[in-house]
Inverse folding.
């Protein structure tokens, strides 16, 4: 850039037009414009073009573009076919389970009968009839009283109650004493211990499942809160932007009205 | 990561309209300009880890958007499409009429807007982009030079030449609209 402005120095003229010019050079251009009609006309013409360019407004677009992150998968072990079952309603799952069980029972030809001679369960594959009151032959005769099929209902009930009471007593005595090494009592104790262990394990599983569900619920709630907060901030920013746009448009309109009024006031009356 | 998404979406809200305006004025088509806005922010979000703040975020977005516009224009030149004719529908204009602007003013503004858009189409891409960035986005000469990858003096030359072409085009258009016999008051260009 030269130290003295000349008519052919268009770069400086553009810098002057947009106000991006050193103060000293601005003074030189100002001084030049006072004496040079061609440059004055040119700078006025370019300013007029800039005014015309203001009329070119883009249409109001429907934007609202946002980046959405897919929710993270919760690290819960799922069975392989969980995705397939997840779309099935709960009632349909129960219905399917009942149906499968029914089909299995039908295939096995299971029959349950309650007759005067006792409760019997038979299957198509196990032809011999098993009486529920039958006593295993391996049981020691001194611990278990054999029960024959009662002829009457009352006797059958009494015998069953007696057996239950005896078994409870036996289990209680086994629990109180040292673990027996062998025998039917030992087996009962082992079974009771196994049951306890199974119950404990089940309780632990249920507790773990509850904790997991609570954790999942907390994660979901956190995620939901975060999404709501994001949406709120986005809406606020959009409202702010729209207000700014409205203010800008109002200002432009006002400026145009002023320009038109000035032009109208400068025009001679016809 | 969620914080990144939230912050980025606020930037989207802040910059989507300027980017749309830039794309629309550069390529002149609403739908395609919207696509370019979407692509711009998607590209910016994916490239966000590589953005070290060496430039202004807005300049970075403008660069991405201008590259997409340039790609779009190259593609259009290979497979040109017939643009929709622009009609001035007075009924439509009347429905859009604001509380201040009369229909006459609205028509005049539409006419001028159409004339500017048409005149801008005649400019070479570099001149048009320089004028858009300067006039509608207020970038400095240096910022435009950085975006266009050219010296500062080239930006000024492009602006001067572009504005001069626009001046001639708009004066011709104005004399055409006024009709023959009304050119006595025309300025000699």
């Amino acid at each position: 850039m030269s130290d003295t402005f000349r008519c052919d120095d268009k770069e400086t003229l553009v810098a002057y037009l947009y106000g991006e010019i050193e103060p000293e050079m601005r003074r030189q251009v100002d001084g030049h414009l006072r004496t040079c009609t061609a440059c004055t006309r040119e700078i006025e013409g370019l300013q007029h073009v800039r005014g015309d360019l203001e009329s070119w407004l883009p249409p109001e677009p429907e934007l609202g573009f946002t980046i959405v992150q897919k929710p993270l998968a919760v690290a819960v072990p799922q069975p392989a076919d969980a995705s397939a079952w997840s779309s099935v309603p709960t009632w349909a799952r129960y219905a399917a389970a009942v149906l499968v069980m029914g089909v299995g029972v039908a295939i096995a030809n299971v029959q349950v009968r309650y007759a005067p001679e006792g409760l019997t369960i038979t299957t198509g594959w196990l032809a011999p009839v098993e009486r529920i009151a039958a006593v295993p032959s391996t049981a020691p005769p001194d611990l278990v009283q054999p029960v024959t099929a009662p002829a009457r209902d009352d006797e059958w009930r009494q015998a069953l109650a007696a057996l239950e009471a005896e078994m409870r007593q036996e289990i209680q005595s086994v629990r109180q004493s040292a673990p027996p090494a062998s025998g039917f009592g030992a087996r009962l104790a082992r079974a009771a211990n196994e049951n306890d262990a199974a119950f404990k394990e089940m309780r632990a599983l249920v507790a773990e499942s509850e904790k997991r569900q609570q954790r999942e619920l907390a994660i979901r709630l956190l995620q939901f809160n975060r999404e709501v907060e994001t949406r709120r901030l986005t809406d606020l920013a959009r409202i702010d932007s729209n207000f700014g746009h409205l203010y800008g448009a109002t200002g432009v309109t006002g400026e145009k009205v002023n320009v038109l009024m000035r032009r109208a006031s400068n025009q001679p009356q016809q | 990561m969620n914080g990144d998404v939230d912050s980025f979406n606020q930037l989207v809200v802040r910059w989507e309209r300027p980017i749309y305006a830039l794309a629309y004025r550069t390529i002149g088509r609403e739908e395609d300009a919207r696509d370019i806005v979407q692509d711009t922010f998607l590209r910016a979000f994916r490239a966000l880890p590589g953005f070290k703040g060496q430039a202004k975020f807005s300049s970075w977005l403008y660069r991405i958007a201008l590259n997409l516009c340039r790609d779009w224009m190259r593609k259009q030149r290979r497979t040109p499409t017939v643009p929709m004719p622009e009609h001035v529908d007075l009924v439509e204009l009347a429905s859009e009429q604001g509380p201040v602007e009369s229909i006459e003013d609205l028509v005049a503004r539409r006419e001028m807007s159409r004339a500017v858009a048409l005149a801008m189409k005649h400019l070479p891409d570099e001149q048009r982009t320089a004028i858009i960035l300067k006039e509608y986005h207020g970038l400095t000469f240096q910022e435009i030079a950085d975006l266009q990858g050219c010296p500062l003096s080239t930006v000024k030359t492009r602006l001067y030449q572009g504005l001069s072409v626009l001046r001639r085009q708009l004066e011709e258009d104005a004399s055409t609209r006024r009709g023959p016999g009304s050119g006595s008051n025309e300025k000699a260009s």
